[in-house]
Amino acid sequence: MHPRSYRLFHTSPHLRKQISKSGMQFSVDNIGPEGGRSGRWVCSNDTSAFQTPGCFLYTRSGAVPCLGMDLLADFPSLPQVSQLSVSTVYGRPACAVLNRLNKTCQQFYGLEKISSMTYMCVQDPADYPDPTFNETKNVSVWTGAQRVKLTAEQFMTFQKYTKPDVFEALCDILPTSVNVAWKRAGKSVDRTLTFLDTCLEVQATTPELSTSAILGVITGGTYVDQRLRSAKETAKRNVAGFAIEGLQILDDNLANTASMVESILGELPQDKPRIFHGPVSPEDILRLVECGIDVFDSSYPFVLSESSLALNLSLTSQTVPETATGAVPETATGAVTVGDSSAAEFVSGESTRPAESTASSTRDHVCADAAVTSIPAAAAACATSPSQTPSTAAESGSHHNTQAPTDTDDHDTDIAGAMGKSKDTKRKPPLVPLLRSIRTFEVDLNDERYAEDFRSLSPDCQCPACKSGCTRAYVYHLQKEGELLGSIHLMQHNLYQYFNFLESVRKATCISDREARAHAWDQLKARVRHAVAA
After folding, report:
1. Strand partners, 60
2. 98-114 tens-digit pLDDT
3. Which of 104, 243, 256, 498 could crosslink 163 through cysteines, CB 3.0-4.6 Å?
4. ∠ CA(5), CA(10), CA(13), 5° rounding?
């Protein structure tokens, strides 16, 4: 068992006997009144189990984006199933190389150091490609700069050499963000079922895949009847579980997505795991777990990090709220107040300090008359105040320099920007777009109001980035300058927050007492609502 595991535990000898030789065995331990269920997924070549609800460890090209093994070692716990995608690892390395080295994909990428199992999906859930390139007998995967057409036979040959513990069958995915006709959605279902039958036939005659588990894929675009047909037909096949693909959660469609998921799960057996692919926020996780989803991927933290967003979930019962203008409640000594404020003050977002205490704040560049304004706004107020001193003006970066910066004065670019001169930004565009509007529990570090916000990314967060003293202003600067360190800190923070939240969800679903479980679930919902209100 991995020393940092929290979703992995040793199974009893009785449970080991139940494991099928053809893959993995899933068992449901508890089903709550809200619909969520807890279970465990046991691999046939291991004596450990993956607990659900949970998530896979999202990777691109065999590595967690922006984080090396040394940085992952700083996490107190990690999911024990690493997720690979064919689109990011196909040909890296070639099948012949894996065959010559006699290594699995887990061994080749060194993932056995952080996980005990591997899962292979077809497309990268964070960045679904255009489905118009898919054809009747093949599916297009984009490997770097080129497109590769994969038939079901070629796909299974790739699985033969990579040897993942679990993989989803080849499928024709129609993302929600792409508008397709009902007839095209029907073709997607037919093609996916044909691919699944071929994959099952090839697995039956391939000894190297005898211990790997195949998941059936539920497709059909946004059409409920096609999704239900896909679920009914896939349930008839001998698969180890089911993966719901292409249901991207966009603005104002969570209710429709949840309703569709409930209808889909009603056609699936209860004794097999259900996986939901795509970036899913904590708010959406609660609703989908209530529907009966067991496993998610962790592509959501990556998508946030690429868009310079940081999760701001409360890890304790009390957090520091953020007002409409981004005010920071402080004590007379400049310390952030957490435990000495009433719930009414948190809901209203009012500052808990008296206005006169601001004058003695350690942040000298914040004016005394800006007690309930954001730090950047306070700095601007100081710049226009008649009583402003030269020192405070210099700290706010808004004074007029007597000598204009030259081309060689690279360290004076901030002063040049303050003087109204154009300043080119080095902020790199995101690899994957955020297909919806920003949620209120997502801190947008593209906003200039965080340029002088010296709070941590989230109150009381114990992630490696926040423990090292990383602030919003620092990450804002790194992202604005296009520094890789900014993405590293955001990935550290967002992954930690995401895993921590899912661990809380799992613990709540494992409670057997009905009343205690309902209370814990209500606390989780309140935690998300509090983070949204902050």
Report:
1. 63
2. 888 888 899 999 998 89
3. 104
4. 170
